[in-house]
Amino acid sequence: MAHVLLFPFPAQGHVPPFLKLAELLSRAGLFITFVNTEHAHRRFLASSPTIDRLAGLQRFRFRTIPDGLGEEDPRLFVHFLRILESLRTRSREHYRELLAPEDGHDPDGWPPVTCVVGDGMLSLALEVAEEMDVPVMLLRTSSACSVWAYYSIPKLVETGDIPFPEKADMDELVQGVAGMESFLRRRDLPGLTRHAKSVADPTLKFLMTASENLARGRALIMNTAECLESPVLSHLSSICRVIYTVGPLQTLLQNFGSCRPDQDVSNSTAASNSASLWQEDRSCLKWLDSHPNKSVVYVSFGSVTVVSREALVEFWHGLVGSGRPFLWVIRPDMVEAGDETAPAELETAARERGCLVAWAPQEEVLAHPSVGCFLTHSGWNSTLESIVAGVPMICWPFFADQQVNSRFVGEVWKVGVDMKDLCGRSVVEGMVRKVMDGGEVGEELRKSAAEMSHMVRIAAEEGGSSYTNFQKLVDHIKSLSSQKYQGSSNK
């Protein structure tokens, strides 16, 4: 019997897509062990009912391992290298025990783990499984276009685009990412490359290692659709033996068949499989109900972005100046340390023009008819959710894959505008007006967004490419299980 262990990097942008894939595999009748760090699991338990619901399924269980960091450590994602090193050095044996209990007996009487789906950014998941001869597939939670850009870093070093030369022209086209030579600028390269001062930079080394690992997995799983990233996927196929595009996962989860009679799995809505490190404030949905169709600007910079108080004020004035009502997610830790106090006028005017929440049920917000625009940090989950909902975007990327995503949104898919590296109030106001008002640009963006939404939804329907690829993925996992048992019986 196939038993899949899923191991994501313990962060907001990584765990939710892993949970969606895990539930899909559970619906397909597989045993699922989902591994979280103890700290991340406690936070998700405190804020997300999804965790409790999934834990109650017949063949679905959570297991936790320590991450080796102190209780008071903030575990900021921008310090991900330190988190990864702690996991690599202090969690190895705990992970090994989950893959194969030392006494040889599973505490629940489950079959042995026959396949690992590991986070492509978490080398530990791959390395230990390989040591124990357990087949590994890798899930990358970012876009295919950003994964290809990461993979191209050695070429970019060779062409001199990385590290950035002193006083580099940020709008100069780069030639080291195959297929993107005509539109990818230096400022559109993955944000983590901006701070590298030499080729020995630890972040560059990590990114190159993670990219090299792509070819080591039995397959690469991606939360995207062929219709969305086909040209880039053709490049990735030159280095990965098998690629399964199964996105958008939230749409596939809504569409994927009926439950097996032996599985206690209810049909899930997008909302019920939302997972967050912060408690969602659902009162904002009622606030949205009071506004006309496509009248509200939804603003969220995700789970990692940190802004200065000055930038916050500029966004604020730009939004107010646009004349549009807005729903704005402002996390408790979003403003730079020591600069947390919000301007008094922001709080006052928000009651008149906007709605401020610490965290929102984003998939439901984007699907709400009153939302007409998404001012976003361009994280891949947010980008894909906006595409599914057919909501045009204003992109203000912070770091990592977000710079690449925002360029594709504005220049390739043409479902939004790219505002990277700018946040002056006049710029914000102008961008909102351009997207929300009834001019030619706004109409074209809405048309393109609706067409793209239709395409990716079709891909996740029965007979669509993502739906079919998921079935192939399940068959592949089952075949690995059969090979393992056949191998054991032949010994």
TrEMBL record:
MF term (GO), any: quercetin 3-O-glucosyltransferase activity
Species of the source: Iris pallida
UniProt xrefs under PROSITE patterns: UDPGT
Pfam family, one: UDPGT
E.C. code: 2.4.1.-
Protein name (record): Glycosyltransferase
Key word Transferase present: yes
PANTHER family (UniProt xref): GLUCOSYL/GLUCURONOSYL TRANSFERASES, GLYCOSYLTRANSFERASE
Family annotation (InterPro entries): UDP_glucos_trans, UDP_glycos_trans_CS
Keyword Glycosyltransferase in annotation: yes
Family the UniProt entry places it in: Belongs to the UDP-glycosyltransferase family.
This protein's UniProt keywords: Glycosyltransferase, Transferase
